[in-house]
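As noted in the main text, all predictions were made from sequence alone. Below is one such record, for DUF2283 domain-containing protein.
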Amino acid sequence: MSERRFTVDHSADAAYFPIATSIGAGESVENLIIERPHGTLVLDFDAGGRLLGLEVLGAKALLTAETIRDAEVLA
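Prediction:
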């Protein structure tokens, strides 16, 4: 089983956890937005209703410091 990489963008205070092996441009056609007290979760789905990934906005508040440290840093 290969290790899945997830990313964090410190300047945007956001993280992305891909579920699909690869996500092509325009492949995410539906988003489910979940508002939390200190941030937002966005679930990305393809045209077939399959989950592609999870975006975390407000990552510093919604994720542990250890999780953020383990991420691949984008900015």
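Residues 56 and 63 are 8 Å apart (CA to CA). The beta strands are 7-9, 14-18, 30-36, 39-45, 51-57, 72-73. These features were considered when defining construct boundaries for the mutagenesis experiments described in Section 2.9.
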